[in-house]
Amino acid sequence: MSNSELVVLGQDEAAVCCSPMVREPLGEEAAVDLARMFKALSDPVRLRLLSLIASHEGGEACVCDLTGPFDVSQPTISHHLKVLREAGLVGSERRGTWVYYWVLPAALAKLSALLQAPVGTDAGGAR
Fold this sequence. Notes:
Blueprint: H1 13-17, H2 20-23, H3 28-41, H4 44-55, E1 60-62, H5 74-86, E2 90-95, E3 98-103, H6 105-115
Antiparallel strand pairs: 1-3, 2-3
Helix pairs in contact: 4-5
């Protein structure tokens, strides 16, 4: 396994085998939780911020490192980071005058598991 692979612990084999939407319909609470995450990611700036944070050296990024790549103001970046945090996609911690952000692996695992193609299907969707 390479150092760049993310290992998700605590999943049983039944949960990994197929998408939750294939096993059973989503419940109301799960749908609300997942919709909040997807809604947060539906903005291109937030999607890029999540990618920047996830790919940053050490797995976390200072807010001071996140403002340069965008053509928006620092308060707008802070708003987008707040939306990602409230959606449960990133964690944060204040260190002195700066806030550091990191991606929450459990959130990515939830999204990934939901979208995982069922075992035995090809990329074109034919069975």
